[in-house]
Write a structure and sequence with these properties.
- 2 copies of one chain form a homodimer.
- By secondary structure, chain A is mainly alpha-helical.
- In chain A, about 70% of the residues lie in helices and about 5% in strands.
- Chain A contains 30 helices and 3 strands.
- Chain A has a two-stranded antiparallel ribbon with strand order 2-3.
- In chain A, strand 2 and strand 3 form a beta hairpin.
- In chain A, helix 11 packs across helix 12.
- The interface between A and B is large, with 108 and 108 residues.
- Strand 2 of chain A pairs parallel with strand 1 of chain B, so a sheet runs across the interface.
Chain lengths: ~675, ~675
C-alpha cells in the first residue's frame, strides 16, 4: 500500500511538473509577445497612458517569471524531500533554476532596442529628487532613480529587458530580509541558545570582527599585488577591503541547519551554529555601515585617521545598541490582551513587528537588527501572552514569509549571475577572496574555540570546530549587503566575487554536509531529551547569565507576561503596593487554578508551575511571603534554571502530562522536598 | 469572576492604548525631526547617496504612520468588540482615524518648502519612460512618474509632505485589492450561494449594468444643468458620466455582512448580498475599463458611434470571459499532492493564486476578476486536495491579508480626504451623485426582484428588498477605481464625490444596519441548519444549475480532486480505460476505507460519502458498474443535490458524526433504501 501511494504521488507530481513547465512556457511566450506589442505600440502612438499600461503589463510578466521560478522550486523540493535527497537544499535548487532562467533571459530572448529613452544634455546644476519636464506645454514628473556611470550610459539603453528583471536593491533590504531575520529570532531554540550564550556571543561579535579584519587585510594584500601586476582597472581602497570583509563575514548556514534538524545532530552544535549565524548577520550589517561611514576629513580621504575611526567605532556601538534597545522595547511593548480574537491578535503582532523595522529605519538605526531582537524578545515574552491559536498563526505566518523570501532571494541570486549588467570577474581577486574567506573563518573558529574551551565545562570538541568551520555558508544577508551599492568599480568586483562565494559555499559546502558529518564522526539521531538530561550539570551556565536569568524570571516575566509568579511573591514585602499594581491579575488567578488550560500551552510553563509550586508551599508553611522571597530574589538554584531551560523547548511533546508526572527518564527532577507535595 | 476579567482586560487595553498613543506621538516627532534633518542636509551638501538615505528614512516614517493607524484601529476594534458596540465597524473606524491623521498632516505639520525640486524647460520633444540627465559630467537616471496639470506645477513643489504620504494609485489595484477579492471568492458560502445563483447573477450582471446606465444618465442630466448654471469649470463628457456610474455601482457591504454574520441573519439574504457584492465588483471593473476604451474614431471624439460601442461591448465580453477562464484554469491547475509538507503546500497555493493575477495582467485581462474566479474554483476543487493543516493555514493567511488590506484601504481613504491635492468638491454634482446612486440602486434591486420573484419559489420578500437596497454600501473597489486616474477635471470631481459617497454609506448605512434590521422586522438569530431543512423543497434550484452540478459532481470533481466517486463508476462502461487513467488512485482507496480520516475533513464529503454509498451498494448488488451508472450520468436526484449543498457548509460542526448519524433534525435525509444499509 505504501509503495502504491508513493508511485501514485510520484506520478501525480510528474504530471504537475509537466503542467507547470507548460505554464511557464506559455508565460515565456506571453513575455515575448508582450515585449513585441510594446514595441509596436511605441512606434505608432506615444501616449503616456498606453505606455504606462504596457509597462505595467511587462512588470506583471517579469514578476510572473519569479513566481513561476518559486513554484518550480517548490515542486522540485517536494520531489527531493519525498525521495530523501539531502545533497541539494531548496535554496541551492532555487539558485540553479535562477541561473537557468538568467541564461535564457540573457541569451535566449532578443529584445529590440527601445527607442523611447533619451539623454538630456541641457545644463542642470543639481540632481533633484523630483524633476518636472516641460514638453511643449505639458508637464511630466520624473523621479530620481540613481547615478549611472558615464561609461554605462549606452548599456542602459541597450539591455532594457535585462534591466526590467532587475529589482531595486533596496527591495531586498526593506522587504525580503526583515521577515527572514525576524523568523530567525522568533524561532531561536531558546534552551540551548541560552545555555551556550557566552560562546555564541563570542563567535558572533569577536569572531565576526576578527573575520572581517583578517579578510580585509588579506584582500588588501591581494589588491596591492593586483595593482603591481596591473590587473586593477579602478580604485580599490582599504576601506573597500574592510567592507568586503564585513559583508562576507555574515554566515547563513540555512542548508546545513536544515540537514542538522532532519538528522537530529547534537543540539549544542546546532545551537552554536544557529545562534552565531543569527547574531553575526546583525553584527555584519552594522559593521559594514560603520565602515562605509568611515570618512576621514581633509584632502586625502583614504588615509588612516584616529578620529574618524573612533567615530566609526562609536557609530557601530550607537547603531547596534540603538537597534537592540528599540527591538527589545517594541518586542516588550507588543503585549496584547486580545486573546478572544486571534485574527486581531495576529494582525497586531505582525504590524508591531513591522513597525519595529520602520521605526528603527526612521530613527536612523538598522531595521534588520531591531527586527532580530524584536523577534527574540517576542518569542520570550509576547509569545506567552498570545492565545494558542495566535501562537500557531504567527509561527506559520512567519514560517511562510521566511520560506518565500529566502527562496526568492536565492533564485534571484542565480538569475543575477547572468542578468546583472556590470559584473567584474577578476580571477586574481576571486582566488584571493576564496582564500581570505577560508582563512577568515578559520581565524574566527579555532582561536575562539580554544579560548572558550578554557572556560567551558562542556568543551567544544575538535570535530565540532571543524564542522563549524565547514558550515560557514554565505547567503541572503551577504548578497543583500553586496548588491545594495554597485556604483563603483570596487563594489562591482566585490559583488561578482561575493556571488561566486555564495554559490560555492551553498552548493559545495551545503551539499557535502552529510558527508562531512559522517567524516567527522558527529553523532546523528540524538534524542534531544536524553542528551539533555545526560548533561545537566550544575555550573555549566555562566554566572553572568544566571544573574540575568533570575532578574528576568522574578521581575520581568511577571511584569510583562501573565505567566510568571506574582510579583508580590518575588519582591520584598516593603514593595507590596507597587507589586500589586504591576502584577497581572491573571497571575493571581493562576494561584487558584494551577492546571489552567492555556497556561499549559505557554512556552516556559514547565518550570513556572514548578517554581510556583515552591512559592505556594512555602507561603503556606510560614504564613508570609518573606520566607520564600529571598530564595527567589537572591537567586533560583541552578537546578531551577536548568529545569526551565530543559522544559522550555518540548512543550508540545509533554503537554498536559508534565505537571502531574514529568517525563524526564534519567533522574527524577523533583528532588526538592516541596515538590513531593504535588505528587499523588 | 467574569466581571473581574472584563475590568482587568479593559484596564489593560486602556494601558495598551495609551502606550500606543505615546508611540504614535513619538513617531510624529520623529517624522518632524526627520523632515527637518532632511532640510539641513539638503542645504549643506547635496550628495545623492545621502539624499537617497534621507528619502528612505522619510518613507519609513510615512509607512509607519499607516502601520500605527492600523494598530490603533485594531486596538479600538477590540475594545468595541469586547463591549459589543455594533454601530461602528472596523472599516468605518479606520476611516475616522484616517481622517484625523489627514487633518494633522494637512494643518498640523509645517514643512518648509523643499528647494531641491526643479523645473526643466529645455526643449524635449517627447516624454520617455526613462530619462538620463547629464549634470556636469555625471549621469543621473530619472523615471517617469506621470503627467501633471500645468496649473498645479506650483502645488507640486509646495506640499512635499502631503505628496509623500500619497501612494501610487496602482498600489491599490495591484497589491491591496487582489487579496481582498481573492478572499471574498475563497470564502464564498457555497451552499446558499449556489442555491441563489440565478438571482445573484441577475443582480450582479444585469443589475450592475442597469445601475451604471441609470446613474450615468442622471449624472449627464446633472452635468448639463451645471453647464447651464455655469458651475462647470472643465470638460465632462457622457463617457465620464457612464464611467462614474460604473465605479459607484460596485457595492461592498462588508460592514453589513459582518453584522449579519454576528446576528445570524437569514442565510439567503446573506448569500444574495454577499454573492452580489463579490460578483458586481468584477463586473464594475471590466465595465469601467470597457467604457474607458470607448473611443470613437474621427474628429469629434465624444459623439456616439455604433462601431465603437460594439467594440467596447466586445471588449467587455472578451476581457470578462478571458479573466474568468484564466482564473478558473489556474484554480483548477493548482492541484497539489504535497500533503506531507503543509508549508510547501501553502506556499504553492499562495504563489499560484498570485500568479493568476499576474498572468491575467500580463495577458491584458483583468487580474482582479481572474483572482476572484480563481478563489471560487480553488475553494471548490483545490481545497479538497489540501491537507487539513494547509486548509487552516490558507484560510488564516488570506483572512489576515484581507483584514490588513481592507483596513489599510479604508484608513487611506480617510487620510486622502485631506491629503489629496486636487479635490474638486462641487455641491451640485455631489447632491446629484447622491440622488443618482440612490435611484441607481433602486433601479437595480426592485425591478429585478420583481422579475426574479416570478420564477422563484422562495420569494425575495419586500423587507429583504429594502434591506438589499439599504445595504448598497460602496467601498474598497469603488475607491480603487476612482483614484486610479485623477488626471482630468472630471475625474477629480468624480474622485472627491466618490469619497463622500463611500463615507456616507459606510458610516450612515453601515452604522444603521441593526436599526434597519429591526425596523424591517428581519429575523435574527436564525439557526442555519434548522432554517435549511425547513426549506429543502425539490425544485428550488434552477434546472440549468442542476445540469452543471451533475456534470461537475460526476466528471470534474473525480478528475480534479481525490474526493469524487471514481470515474469508472460515473462514465459509461465503454470509456473504462480512459476512466481508469483519469481517476485518482486515491479515489479507489477510498473504496476500501470509507471512514478515511482526511476525507472526513473535505468540504463536500457529506454528500460524497452518501453518494458513494449508493455506488458500492448497487455495485455489490448487481455485480457491475452499469447498474448505478445511469443514475449518476443522467442526473443525481434533487434530493442528492440538496443534500450536498446542505452538508457542504457545516463540515466542522458535524465532523465525525455525520456518516453514522446525520444531524438533520426535521426529516431523516436517508430516505433512499440503499442508505439504510449503512445504519446500524
Amino acid at each position: 500500500m505504501v509503495f502504491r501511494v508513493t508511485v501514485n504521488s510520484a506520478w501525480r507530481a510528474t504530471r504537475t511538473l509537466w503542467l507547470l513547465v507548460l505554464v511557464s512556457l506559455s508565460v515565456c511566450i506571453c513575455v515575448c509577445r508582450a515585449s513585441s506589442t510594446q514595441e509596436d505600440s511605441a512606434m505608432e502612438n506615444i501616449v503616456t497612458e498606453k505606455k504606462a499600461e504596457e509597462s505595467h503589463r511587462q512588470d506583471s510578466a517579469d514578476l510572473l517569471i519569479f513566481i513561476m521560478l518559486l513554484t518550480l522550486t517548490i515542486l522540485t523540493i517536494w520531489l527531493f524531500k519525498h525521495r530523501r535527497f539531502r545533497f541539494l537544499h531548496e535554496t541551492g535548487l532555487a539558485m540553479i533554476y535562477g541561473v537557468l532562467v538568467g541564461v535564457v533571459l540573457r541569451y535566449g530572448i532578443h529584445v529590440p532596442r527601445d527607442i523611447s529613452n533619451a539623454t538630456l544634455s541641457c545644463p542642470v546644476n543639481a540632481s533633484p529628487a523630483t524633476l518636472l519636464i516641460n514638453v511643449s506645454g505639458k508637464f511630466y514628473e520624473y523621479t530620481l532613480k540613481g547615478e549611472i556611470n558615464a561609461n554605462e550610459v549606452d548599456d542602459v539603453q541597450d539591455n532594457e529587458m535585462l534591466r526590467k528583471v532587475t529589482f531595486d536593491p533596496e527591495v531586498f533590504f526593506n522587504i525580503l530580509l526583515p521577515p527572514i531575520i525576524f523568523h530567525a529570532g522568533y524561532s531561536l531554540k531558546r534552551r540551548h541558545f541560552f545555555r551556550n550564550m557566552g560562546s555564541i556571543l563570542a563567535y558572533a561579535f569577536l569572531g565576526t570582527v576578527i573575520s572581517c579584519f583578517v579578510i580585509g587585510l588579506l584582500m588588501y594584500g591581494c589588491v596591492m599585488l593586483m595593482k603591481q601586476v596591473g590587473q586593477l582597472d579602478g580604485d580599490f581602497f582599504f576601506t573597500d577591503c574592510l567592507f568586503f570583509g564585513a559583508i562576507v563575514s555574515a554566515t547563513d548556514p540555512v542548508t546545513v541547519l536544515a540537514i542538522f534538524n532532519e538528522l537530529q545532530v547534537d543540539v549544542d552544535l546546532y545551537a552554536l551554529l544557529f545562534g552565531e549565524s543569527v547574531l553575526n548577520d546583525a553584527v555584519a550589517v552594522v559593521l559594514s555601515s560603520s565602515i562605509v561611514a568611515y570618512q576621514p576629513q581633509g584632502d586625502n580621504s583614504h588615509t588612516f585617521e584616529v578620529m574618524a575611526m573612533l567615530k566609526s567605532f562609536g557609530m557601530f556601538l550607537g547603531v547596534f545598541s540603538g537597534s537592540f534597545a528599540l527591538g527589545v522595547a517594541t518586542g516588550v511593548f507588543t503585549f496584547t490582551k486580545l486573546r478572544d480574537f486571534p485574527l486581531l491578535e495576529t494582525a497586531l503582532f505582525f504590524l508591531m513587528s513591522w513597525s519595529t523595522f520602520l521605526l528603527a529605519e526612521a530613527c536612523g538605526f538598522t531595521g534588520v537588527v531591531a527586527v532580530l531582537f524584536c523577534g527574540i524578545t517576542q518569542a520570550h515574552y509576547t509569545f506567552n501572552n498570545l492565545s494558542p491559536d495566535s501562537q500557531d498563526r504567527t509561527k506559520q505566518l512567519f514560517e511562510l514569509l521566511n520560506f518565500l523570501a529566502e527562496n526568492f532571494i536565492f533564485s534571484y541570486m542565480g538569475l543575477t549571475l547572468f542578468t546583472f549588467q556590470n559584473h567584474v570577474f577578476n580571477p586574481m581577486f576571486i582566488v584571493g577572496a576564496f582564500v581570505a574567506v577560508f582563512l577568515g573563518r578559520a581565524a574566527n573558529i579555532y582561536p575562539l574555540s580554544f579560548l572558550l574551551n578554557l572556560g567551558r565545562r562542556n568543551k567544544i570538541r575538535s570535530n565540532f570546530q571543524h564542522m563549524m568551520m565547514f558550515a560557514g555558508l554565505r547567503g541572503a544577508m551577504t548578497f543583500a549587503l553586496s548588491i545594495r551599492d554597485t556604483a563603483t568599480y570596487a563594489r562591482q568586483m566585490m559583488f561578482s566575487t561575493t556571488l561566486l562565494v555564495v554559490f560555492f559555499t551553498v552548493w559545495i559546502c551545503g551539499g557535502g554536509t552529510t558527508q562531512m558529518l559522517s567524516c567527522q564522526r558527529i553523532r546523528v539521531g540524538v534524542d534531544s531529551d536524553q542528551d539533555n538530561s545526560r548533561r545537566s550539570t550544575k555550573h555549566e551556565s555562566a554566572w553572568l547569565f544566571r544573574i540575568w536569568y533570575n532578574f528576568d524570571h522574578n521581575y520581568l516575566k511577571p511584569i510583562l507576561t501573565h505567566s510568571g509568579p506574582p510579583l508580590t511573591a518575588t519582591l520584598p514585602p516593603c514593595c507590596g503596593p507597587l507589586a500589586r499594581i504591576l502584577t497581572s491579575p491573571q497571575a493571581y488567578e493562576n494561584e487558584c487554578q494551577l492546571k489552567d488550560d492555556d497556561s499549559d500551552l505557554i512556552l516556559t510553563d514547565g518550570d513556572i508551575n514548578l517554581t510556583y509550586g515552591d512559592i505556594t508551599v512555602s507561603t503556606d508553611a510560614s504564613g508570609a511571603h518573606t520566607s520564600s522571597g529571598p530564595a527567589f530574589a537572591g537567586g533560583a538554584t541552578s537546578d531551577d534554571l536548568d529545569r526551565e531551560l530543559t522544559y522550555g523547548d518540548h512543550e508540545l511533546v509533554m503537554r498536559g502530562t508534565r505537571l502531574v508526572l514529568p517525563m524526564d527518564d534519567s533522574e527524577p527532577p523533583f528532588t526538592d522536598p516541596h515538590h513531593r507535595l504535588h505528587l499523588p
